[in-house]
């Protein structure tokens, strides 16, 4: 989309069909070339997959990446505001209605945890896959990522410069981190010996230093009962002359294990002044298995949820509930007002041990809402307005001075030039206005109104039965006064609950005006 939208309805990337066509062509240029080894493909972009919209024809940038089975897609946009583990492994799904179109609970959901030798003969072409790594940002988090490609394997190391510069930077390139860097094909390559022993027979790392490096050591720890135990310590050699690559041979068969996080690698470097530098400990699996790692709630919201697919299901589910909250009591009132049915559904009475009576049927409490005709009509008309009419007008486009109308389907382009083929723009960006308003303003307000109606019905019912009793019983009069006090405080609490709703509505309005 060539039109620039103003905040807050500009949080999604809007790829076009032409952009996906050009991207597909660029990634296909090596497919027909005969090479001794597969080409490692890496893509860079601003928006994560979870914040990338579909094109006008319904295509997704994710489908293009899966088609070419990228090694990695590096993106930004989220910075580090939601966490440090904004990573996700994508795999193609044969099932068209797979839940992964909407959400994914784990970073590596569906990755293999074990492979047997029997799979080698039946192995077919691997399914499309790619890693998505959000990079953080330099402006506020002072974060930098170094990417390395070693024999087709892509690895990285994140540097945090918030507390100053680094004299030494260490990037282990093999073995890979079993949490964030393994691919679905790695277990097959290990079991079926598709990878040469020379490749997996060395530990490799890049070491960049401001000063001369005296020694580099590879250390392998075994995680047992929550503590690390050193099981291997070998000095590495500089195999690239004046370069930064250090390697050491190891007996990798000793570390073949069914657990992907039993063994952990750490590289130690010592410079000419004797200062020791350590890389981050990372689990590895020479078997190619993937260690389970889960997002936090904030990370799951921005990486695990495919919001362009979830927008309409969430919106229509909320609207369906709100319409049922308004229409069902009205239907019940019409049903109960039928004389014949009223006789059949006459409230039964149950005698308490104290000798009093109380109603058993609480259905009439919901009917009280529809008796408040003005409020009920206002609620219904407001819902119909949200569905069929524009919500408000505003200057949504930075390149045009005409006001535009916001609908739940996007900003109307009726008064915008050169957009005749696009009746609405900004979908699903408008969800940042639509969903918070429905979920945090309209829904709580309707529930509180229904609760006030139920409290009113309960109070009237209780008052009627108390008046029907004989006077002179001081104990019952005291209980009646206590009940009145309870109803008084319930009503006060419900009214006070309206204040957070008003504050949320004002805050959303202020953010929209400021954008």
From TrEMBL:
Residues of the TMEM62 Ig-like domain: 165-289
InterPro entries for this protein: Ig_TMM62 (IPR056229), Metallo-depent_PP-like (IPR029052), TMEM62_C (IPR056230)
Signal peptide as annotated in the record: none
TMEM62 C-terminal domain ranges (all copies): 313-509
UniProt keywords, alphabetically: Membrane, Transmembrane, Transmembrane helix
Superkingdom assignment: Eukaryota
Pfam families: Ig_TMM62 (PF24384), TMEM62_C (PF24394)
Protein name according to UniProt: Calcineurin-like phosphoesterase domain-containing protein
């Amino acid at each position: 989309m060539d039109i620039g939208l103003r905040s807050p309805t500009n949080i999604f990337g809007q790829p076009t069909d032409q952009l996906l066509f050009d991207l597909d062509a660029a990634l296909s240029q090596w497919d027909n070339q005969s090479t001794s080894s597969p080409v490692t493909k890496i893509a860079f972009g601003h928006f994560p997959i979870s914040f990338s919209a579909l094109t006008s024809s319904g295509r997704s940038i994710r489908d293009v990446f899966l088609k070419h089975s990228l090694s990695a897609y590096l993106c930004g946009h989220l910075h580090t505001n939601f966490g440090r583990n904004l990573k996700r492994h994508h795999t193609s799904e044969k099932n068209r209605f797979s839940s992964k179109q909407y959400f994914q609970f784990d970073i590596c959901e569906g990755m293999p945890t074990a492979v047997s030798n029997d799979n080698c003969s039946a192995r077919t072409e691997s399914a499309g896959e790619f890693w998505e790594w959000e990079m953080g940002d330099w402006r506020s988090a002072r974060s930098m990522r170094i990417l390395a490609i070693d024999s087709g394997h892509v690895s990285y190391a994140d540097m945090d410069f918030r507390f100053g510069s680094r004299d030494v930077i260490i990037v282990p390139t093999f073995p890979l981190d079993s949490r964030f860097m393994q691919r679905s094909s790695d277990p097959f390559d290990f079991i079926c010996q598709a990878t040469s022993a020379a490749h997996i027979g060395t530990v490799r790392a890049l070491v960049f230093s401001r000063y001369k490096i005296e020694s580099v050591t590879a250390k392998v720890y075994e995680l047992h009962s929550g503590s690390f135990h050193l099981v291997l310590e070998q000095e590495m050699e500089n195999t690239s002359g004046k370069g930064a690559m250090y390697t050491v041979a190891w007996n990798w068969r000793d570390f073949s294990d069914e657990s992907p996080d039993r063994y952990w690698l750490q590289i130690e470097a010592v410079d000419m002044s004797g200062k020791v530098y350590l890389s981050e400990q990372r689990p590895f699996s020479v078997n190619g298995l993937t260690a389970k790692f889960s997002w936090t709630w904030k990370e799951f919201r921005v990486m695990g949820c495919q919001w362009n697919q979830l927008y309409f299901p969430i919106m229509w589910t909320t609207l369906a509930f709100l319409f049922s909250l308004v229409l069902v009591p009205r239907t019940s009132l019409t049903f109960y007002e039928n004389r014949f049915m009223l006789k059949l559904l006459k409230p039964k009475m149950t005698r308490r041990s104290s000798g009093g009576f109380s109603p058993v049927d609480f259905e009439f409490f919901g009917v009280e809402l529809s008796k408040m005709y003005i409020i009920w009509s206002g609620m219904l008309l407001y819902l119909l307005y949200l569905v069929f009419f524009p919500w408000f007008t505003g200057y949504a486009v930075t390149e045009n001075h005409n006001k535009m109308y916001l609908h739940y389907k996007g900003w109307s382009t009726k008064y915008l030039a050169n957009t005749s083929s696009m009746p609405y723009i900004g979908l699903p960006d408008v969800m940042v206005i639509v969903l918070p308003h429905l979920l945090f303003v309209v829904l709580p307000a309707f529930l509180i109104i229904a609760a006030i109606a139920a409290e009113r019905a309960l109070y009237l019912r209780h008052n009627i039965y108390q008046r029907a009793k004989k006077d002179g019983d001081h104990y019952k009069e005291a209980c009646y006064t206590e009940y009145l006090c309870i109803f008084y405080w319930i009503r006060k609490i419900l009214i006070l609950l309206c204040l957070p709703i008003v504050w949320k509505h004002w805050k959303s309005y202020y953010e929209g005006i400021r954008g």
